Amino acid sequence: MRTVIEFSFKIDEDIIYFNPLFGEGYKANPFTASTRNYPVEMPYTSNEVIVVNFEIPKGYKVDEIPKSARVNLNETDGSFEYIIQADKEYIQLRCKIAINKATFSAEDYESLREFYTYIVKKQGEQIVFKKIK
Q1: Are the CB atoms for 57 and 11 separated by under 8 Å?
Q2: Distance between alpha carbon 86 and the CA centroid of its chain, in Å?
Q3: HEC string of the chain?
Q4: What count of other Cβ atoms lies within 10 Å of the Cβ of residue 28?
Q5: CA–CA distance from 11 to each of 8, 24, 62, 88 (Å)?
Q6: Per-residue pLDDT band at 4 (split at 50, 70, 90)
Q7: CA nearest to 84, candidates 130, 58, 50, 33
Q8: What is the pTM of this model?
Q9: Are residues 94 and 115 in contact, defined by beta-carbon separation less than 8 angstroms?
Q10: pLDDT > 90? residue 2
Q11: b/e code 74-83 from CB counts within 10 Å (16+ = b)
C-alpha cells in the first residue's frame, strides 16, 4: 500500500526539531514485563516498511540527522533497518521492521524486548534544522 501525503506550513523559528516518521513509529515497547515464563505468540510474521521523502524547508539546513542503523533479532528471527540520508534539498528515510517468525520461546523474550526497545528509541530520534543566516 502506498500513501502519499503532501503538506506545507509556515515556520519562523531558528531551530526546528522534526520527527521524520510523523509519529507513525512505535512510541512504546509492546514488551513491558522484565521477565516472561511462557512463549510469546504473535498472530503472524510481519514486514513493515515506511519510506519517507521530503524537501528540506527553504531557508534551513540540516544541523543534525539520526544515524542509519541495521539490527538483527537473534540473527535470523527479525531485522530492523533505519536508513536515512540527506543532501542540500531532500531527506530520504527507509524504515523497515521484519519479524520472521510468530512464536518466540521464553528464553528469547529478553532479546525480543531489547530489539523493540531499540526500535522505539531509534524511531523517536529527530532531525534538527537550523535557519540559514
Answers
A1: yes
A2: 16
A3: CCCCCCCCCCCCCCEEEECCCCCCCCCCCCCCCCCCCCCEECCCCEEEEEEEEEECCCCEEEEECCCCEEEEECCCCEEEEEEEEECCCEEEEEEEEEECCCEECHHHHHHHHHHHHHHHHHHCCCEEEEECC
A4: 9
A5: 10, 22, 15, 19
A6: low
A7: 50
A8: 0.89
A9: no
A10: no
A11: eeebbbbebe
Q: Are 94 and 83 in contact (CB under 8 A)?
A: yes
What letter represents residue 14's amino acid?
D
Cell of 8: 506545507
Contact 24, 122 (CB under 8 A): no
Rounded to whole angstroms, how far apart are CA atoms 53 and 84? 10
Over the stretch 67-76, which tens digit does the pLDDT of each residue have? 999 999 999 9
Would you state the cell numbers that stand for residue 20, as one nine-digit string? 521524520
Q: Which residue has 536515512 as its cell numbers?
A: 84
Query: In 3D, which of 57, 45, 50 has the Cα closest to residue 123?
Result: 50
